[in-house]
Amino acid sequence: MTADGGSPAEVEGARHGRMPRRSAGRSAITLIASALAVLLVAGAAVAAFVVVDLYRGLQQRPPVELESERMLEGVPDIGAMEGGLTFFLAGSDKRPEDGAFGDPDEESGVLNDVNMLLHISQDHSHVEVVSFPRDLLVDVPECPDPSGAEGETLAPMYGVKLNSVLHYGGVGCVVATIEQLTGLTIPVAGVVEFYGVASLAEAVGGVEVCLAEPIDDPWSGLQLDAGTHSITGMTALAFLRSRHGVGDGSDLGRISNQQAFLSSLMRTIQGDGVLSDPVKLYAIAKAVLGNMQLSSYLQDPVTLISIARTLQDVDLSKIVFVQYPTAYTSDFGAVVPTESADALNAALVADQPLQLAAEATTDATYGTVPGEQPSAEASAPPTDAAPDAPPTDAPGEPPAEPPPTETPAQVLPDDITGQTGAEVRCSTANDR
Q1: d(CA 427, CA 181)
Q2: Is residue 284 part of a domain?
Q3: With contact defined as beta carbons under 8 Å apart, do 246 and 217 qualify?
Q4: Domain harbouring 158, CATH code
Q5: Number of domains comprising the chain
Q6: Which of 32, 143, 267, 286 has the fewest CB atoms found within 10 Å of its own CB?
Q7: Strand (E) positions, 287-357?
Q8: Distance between CA 384 and CA 364 in Å, rounded?
Q9: Where in the sequence does UniProt note compositional bias of the Low complexity kind (predicted)?
Q10: What is the DSSP string of 206-257?
Q11: Cβ 363 vs Cβ 418: under 8 Å
Q12: pTM above 0.70, yes or no
């Protein structure tokens, strides 16, 4: 989900532009459900195992501390969702110790090559996921030194690539940088590494992706024929890591590929009942806690499951994946924000739903192409039941409250690309 498997020089100096060339747990629950007595006796034991198992994984990875996390003190369980939530996820290219992706001492730069912001609105009616290019030039504010004594800080930096900030100051410093860039307050965050991506894909039972053309990328190991595939584990990891094999070979093309995957993931977890299945929710929480470094507030499986369930009823068309708008520098070695970033930042801060401009993504040179969209019949709600009659006020009762007014969507400038959770888009091969 991060680096391209190249040498250290290629990792540090990789150009952003175009390159020149069912489980045992399920079986146990089925058996338990066969008799009420067994259910009553074994239920507590299963629950105890789940809690112990989750927290064992939790203890293996220390939490990260964020300055903005203090705003969550005293807030009730996020499952009640009295408000929204903004979460930042960094994908690190740190190689695992087993050497499966290269020598961890020789080839790992600990770069945050993937940077995503998840924003759940205050009323839970819409969700935005913003991807920030790894080679985006940013100013880094003064931030706490994660390896120093308490109170020690790191000096600010100016005009550096975003993917260098994790190595410099940890995820807290990356979050502070994104807060300064967008104007948002980000109270929770996490870092995921290679095997974490594979585990998450397995936890949901696979994700369906569409390829417009065959893709053969020796850098990431992705080899898939054209058509639709259900991918999981290491294949899903290769799909998300692939840069040389997709689009125009740039990180912008890879982001579009990742958005197509995440959109399909949302359709999967809503359509397959993942968010209402305690076994799958447990598997997801276990994969997250065992494979991610999380800020303190997220070090609780109940919180993770509650956050996931807030996505259960969000209209897929109101889940919008966007790429932070950028333009190349003169040497094509990095990107900088365009003026359109101001409109995106303002909409996020104002908690407005986002609407992509027509054809913005299709016209991009580095993106995906439209796939076969779900039919209207397939996506429409069941119509067996008669429509509810309009409410009537009983005698002496106060008038019924009118339905809440929906917040109008912010139509984004046409250089901001992305897609909704309801759209199917297909990855294209890099033939350059």
Answers
A1: 30
A2: yes
A3: yes
A4: 3.40.630.190
A5: 1
A6: 32
A7: 292-294, 319-323, 326-328, 335-337, 354-355
A8: 42
A9: 374-387
A10: -EEEEESS-EEETTTTEEE-SEEEEE-HHHHHHHHH-STTBTTSSHHHHHHH
A11: no
A12: yes
Range of lowest pLDDT (16-25, 93-102, 278-287):
16-25
Residue 161 CB-half CA count within 13 A: 21
Return the residue matching tokens 């569409």. Answer: 210
Nearest to 68 by CA among 176, 177, 146: 176
**How many Å apart are CA 129 and CA 237, to the nearest integer?**
19
Its domain, for residue 59, covers: 8-375+409-427
Determine whether 225 is exposed, middle or buried from the number of CB atoms within 10 Å of its CB (0-12, 13-18, 19+). Answer: exposed
Task: From residue 311, give the alpha-carbon distance in Å to each of 221, 276, 400.
Answer: 32, 11, 28
CB 430 within 8 A of CB 249: yes
β-strand pairing of 354-355 with 410-411: parallel
Q: Whats the size of the chain, residue-wise?
A: 432
Alpha-carbon distance 69 to 61, whole Å? 18
Is 390 within the bounds of a domain?
no
Radius of gyration, CA atoms only, the chain: 22
Distance from the Cα of residue 328 to its chain's centroid:
24
Give the confidence band of 149 by pLDDT, cuts at 50, 70, 90.
Answer: confident
**What one-letter code names the amino acid at 431?**
D
What is the average pLDDT across 346-364?
A: 93
HSE of 201, CA atoms in CB hemisphere, 13 A: 26
Q: Report if residue 391 sits inside a domain.
A: no
